[in-house]
Amino acid sequence: MADPKGFMTTPRQDWPRRPVEERVKDWGEVYVPGALLPIISKQADRCMDCGIPFCHDACPLGNLIPEWNDLVSREDWRAAADRLHATNNFPEFTGRLCPAPCEAGCVLAINQPAVTIKNVECSIADRAWEEGFAPPRPPERLSGKTVAVIGSGPTGLAAAQQLTRAGHTVAVYEKDDRLGGLMRYGIPEFKMEKHHLERRIEQMRAEGTKFRTSTAVGREIGAAELRSRYDAVVIATGATAWRELPVPGRELMGVQQAMEYLPLANRVCEGDLETSPMSAAGKHVVIVGGGDTGADCLGTAVREGAASVTQLDIYAQPGTERDEDAEPWPTYPKLYRLSAAHEEARELETAPAADADARLFAASTLRFTGDADGHVRSLHLVEVDAQRRPLPGTGRTLPADLVLLALGFSGPDRGDGLIDQLGLELQPRGTIARDAGFATNVPGVFAAGDAARGQSLIVWAIAEGRAVAAAVDRYLTGSSRLPAPISPYDRPMTV
Ligand SMILES: Cc1cc2nc3c(=O)[nH]c(=O)nc-3n(C[C@H](O)[C@H](O)[C@H](O)COP(=O)(O)OP(=O)(O)OC[C@H]3O[C@@H](n4cnc5c(N)ncnc54)[C@H](O)[C@@H]3O)c2cc1C
Ligand code: SF4
Asked: Which residue puts its alpha carbon closest to atom 27 of ligand 1?
């Protein structure tokens, strides 16, 4: 570190967001462009180089955080980019989208605001692209082995890049018309502009990875046929089978799944559609589900011009401070967090019923009622205790012309037939079963990412992609020098 007292003299400063009034009028990222670079070296200098960096362990990729903090504090961007790319294929994705469990594990966070690790990561990645420090790295020689990767989300892309660089000939099969998985159709543009995705895909093409879009394995091409054409297959198809809300009125028009709604907004941003056929414009919107997908619906509905937006969370409102007994440092605590979308909702007072921002906590949906045309018009809810028992006298009704269900995902979607055609064994919760080496019960077929781990995060997906690549490389060649940051059994740090 350039200044050993940086953590005592420099307060934490996050990447400033654009004013709410300005940013909700467009789909661009919420941050002030160019505002990170002038502050980031001083922020990196807050790293104490504590000696036992729990941030390493808290990051599934094992990112070398103190090392690149030091390099950024000294403005050695090239070396910082090298160290960052040594553990993370796509730091511009995690630098924008990761909830940063590393910051919860930062030693400084024991009694001060953590180092802005995620911001440092993002600035290194962006600077690397600006300065040309992230060139394509094609392999020096080919192995003669072929690998099919099914799915182009962060897991599939990371696996494909690692395997291509190791010399294997890799084709990525993707059923959507564009690459990127949930980062393309799911995560809104205001969280990550898609040109970041395009740039990486171009890098991968230049390295030799082949992409086949609009090709659902199991439908457009038989899974067994694919298996016979390649030396190894990696299944990275995600976990997109959504959870349902079986309450009266669910069948009404206007009660939609979040993942029916969000991709349409992505398509507007891509230029495929003028407006979304499910647009929230002028509608009273209620989002059922308090997680990040719900928050993405919130930010999207605000930008589409909803008349009102409320988000329901079945859990009680968490506190703003870590509960040291229940969730001690360095675990990732459940806290009341104000995402960019919630900040927008609070400032614009979008919700007709919520108190602080658009969220109603400890709220359980009882039923929906509709009009004579069968369209939803109201949502009826009740407050619940920690055991989800209704509290008498707390019933209320919200206006609702569009209800978005954001209740999470139960496992991989089986509609394409891939799982059945290969005869893959599943875990009791519906995800694809695999052994300690990421291998499924079918020889030469490996599974990684949300499809096998269950609904997770991009940082875990990239770690899965890197680790499965090492396993496949070993399977194909007998040994591997590729890094494997996690095992299939690793889980986030908990008490
Ligand atoms: C709305 C939303 C917002 C999120 N926001 C964040 C966030 O901000 N930060 C974060 O860390 N995580 C976030 N997540 C979670 C994160 O996106 C996932 O954990 C991650 O994308 C999983 O990566 P994956 O590659 O395993 O699967 P996916 O990203 O789901 O990719 C799987 C791909 O496989 C393709 N596919 C499926 N079946 C077939 C087939 N038969 N043939 C060919 N292709 C197939 C799919 O079309 C898809 O492109 C979010 C999730 C959602 C739903
Ligand atoms: S990937 Fe996530 S956990 Fe890892 S260093 Fe970046 S922000 Fe932290």
From this structure: 238
pLDDT tens across 431-463, in order? 999 999 999 999 999 999 999 999 999 999 999
Please, which residues have CB within 8 angstroms of residue 415's CB and are 6 or more apart in sequence? none
Ligand 1: nearest atom to the Cα of 237: 34
| DSSP per residue, 297-317 | HHHHHHHHT-SEEEEE-SSPP
Ligand 2 pocket, 159 CB below 6 A? Answer: no
Kindly report, residue by residue over 472-489, the tens digit of the pLDDT: 999 999 999 999 999 999
For ligand 1, whether the C-beta of 55 sits within 6 Å is no
Domains of the chain: 6-131 (1.10.1060.10), 146-240+410-477 (3.50.50.60), 247-407 (3.50.50.60)
Given a contact cutoff of 8 angstroms between Cβ atoms, the answer to whether 310 and 353 are in contact is yes
114 lines ligand 2 (CB under 6 A): no
Residue 352 — pLDDT band, cuts 50, 70, 90?
A: confident
pLDDT tens readout for residues 328-345? 999 999 999 999 999 999
Name which of 333, 305, 306, 330 is nearest 320 in CA terms.
Answer: 333
Scan for tokens 């609904």, then name that residue: 455
Phi, psi of 375 (to 5 degrees): -105, 140
User: Across-strand partners of 148?
Assistant: 171, 233
Establish whether residue 97 lines the binding site of ligand 1, counting it when its CB lies within 6 angstroms of any ligand atom: yes
Residue position matching structure tokens 């009680």: 316
> Would you say 145 and 123 are in contact if contact means Cβ atoms under 8 Å apart?
no
Does the global pTM surpass 0.85? yes
- H or E element in which residue 39 lies: helix 37-44
172-177-181 Cα angle (round to 5) = 60
386 CA distance to ligand 1 middle (Å): 31
484 near 189, Cβ under 8 Å? Answer: no
Coil, strand or helix at 262: helix
> What distance in angstroms lies between residue 98's CA and the mean position of ligand 2's atoms?
6
Q: What is the arrangement of strands in the sheet containing 376-383, beginning at the earlier edge strand?
A: 363-370, 376-383, 396-399
3-class DSSP state of 445: strand
From the CB of 102, is ligand 2 less than 6 Å away? yes
Q: Would the CB of 173 count as within 6 Å of ligand 1? A: yes
Cβ-based neighbours of 234, under 8 Å, separated by 6 or more: 147, 148, 149, 150, 156, 159, 163, 446, 447, 448, 468, 469, 472
pLDDT at 353 over 80: no
Residue 404 near ligand 1, beta carbon < 6 Å: no
Which residues are CB-neighbours of 186 under 8 A, at least 6 positions away? 259, 262, 263, 266, 293, 296
Is residue 443 within 8 A of residue 422, CB to CB? The reply is no
Which ligand is the nearest neighbour of the Cα of 223? 1
